[in-house]
Write a structure and sequence with these properties.
The complex is a heterodimer of chains A (about 180) and B (about 100).
Chain A: E1 19-22, E2 26-33, H1 38-45, E3 56-59, E4 62-68, E5 71-77, H2 81-91, E6 97-101, E7 106-112, H3 116-121, E8 138-143, E9 146-154, E10 157-163, H4 167-181
Antiparallel strand pairs in A: 1-7, 2-5, 2-6, 3-4, 4-5, 7-10, 8-9, 9-10
Chain B: E1 3-6, E2 11-14, E3 19-23, H1 31-36, H2 39-47, E4 55-61, E5 69-75, E6 81-86, H3 94-102
Antiparallel strand pairs in B: 1-2, 3-4, 4-5, 5-6
Classes of the chains: A alpha+beta (about 180), B alpha+beta (about 100).
Chain lengths: ~180, ~100
């Protein structure tokens, strides 16, 4: 059952040049597998784990991003939470691994529009040119003082995840930014 | 802002994502060695560092990125990073540092 994520986004943030919306609740799992087991794990699980740090694999609603040498995050729509949890707990019997349900720890924002790059860059110093941050890349980074996960789903579309307690803090920055550009 | 090359992510990332983690290549004595060590030697291992002026091998932590530790050669005078390398690798020789500086 979906629950109220409790984050209000001011109307000023839904314009043409910049549109920031809250993503619906999702299922998220942080999975760590030893490098030597990854090939066997992929085979046994059917998950399409990307190989390079920063790469993502999208199948249907499921997005798997690689954030560290042995660390992946699986995110999917909220309905599949139990199914993934069951699958992972079954795999945990066969591999030395860790799987943590972080579904309700994070909040996801969808930042889109012509000014999306700038809305990310006001708090995050990464180079967001398409060359160094192509569509489909995901990374953990920092937005002002909030640790975030940044995923580029389109040229002008980003998905930003942060801990739920940081969400009002993020919204405040974007509100100030929207006042600046108005 | 400094850009630091993370050897795991294999790209330059802003310094805000990193945390300094002390001098590199300090080997912790194993249990048998610890049992035989004097208190003076133990405190030397724990607290005494070289505080080098010039090229310094040090540990860095990509805390807001891939979450891995790695080593770097940084000049403590100019604050320039000459090179970064993975923890399992040996300290680069003076010659290697010199070559990296010229790149």
């Amino acid at each position: 059952m979906l629950f109220d994520q409790g984050i209000d986004i001011p109307e000023a943030l839904s314009g043409d040049a910049l549109n920031i919306a809250l993503e619906p609740e999702k299922a998220r799992f942080n999975v760590r597998v030893k490098s030597k087991d990854v090939a066997a794990f992929k085979k046994a699980s059917g998950f399409k784990f990307p190989v390079k740090i920063g790469a993502t694999a999208k199948t249907g609603t499921q997005l798997i991003s690689k954030f560290g040498p042995d660390e992946w995050v699986i995110s999917d729509d909220a309905k599949s939470r139990e199914k993934i949890a069951k699958k992972l707990s079954k795999l945990a019997g066969q591999f030395v691994m860790s799987a943590t349900d972080i579904s309700h720890r994070n909040i996801a924002f969808n930042v889109s529009g012509r000014l999306a790059n700038e809305a990310v860059n006001i708090g995050c110093p990464l180079d967001l040119s398409l060359k160094s941050f192509p569509v489909g890349k995901a990374t953990r980074t920092i937005f002002e003082n909030a640790p975030i996960q940044l995923y580029r789903s389109g040229e002008d579309t980003f998905q930003i995840e942060c801990w739920r307690s940081f969400a009002p803090y993020m919204v405040d920055f974007w509100t100030a930014f929207s006042r600046d550009i108005a | 802002m400094l850009l630091i090359h993370c050897p795991h992510c294999n790209e330059e990332r802003p310094e805000l994502e990193f945390a300094y983690a002390g001098e590199a290549h300090i080997v912790r004595p194993n249990e048998a060695e610890q049992a035989e060590m004097s208190d003076a030697d133990w405190s030397k291992f724990m607290f005494i560092r070289d505080n080098i002026r010039g090229d310094h091998a040090e540990r860095w932590w990509h805390a807001h990125g891939c979450n891995m530790f790695f080593n770097a050669i940084r000049n403590t005078v100019t604050d320039k990073f000459t090179m970064t390398y993975k923890v399992c690798q040996k300290r680069p020789t003076e010659h290697q540092i010199k070559v990296a500086k010229n790149d």
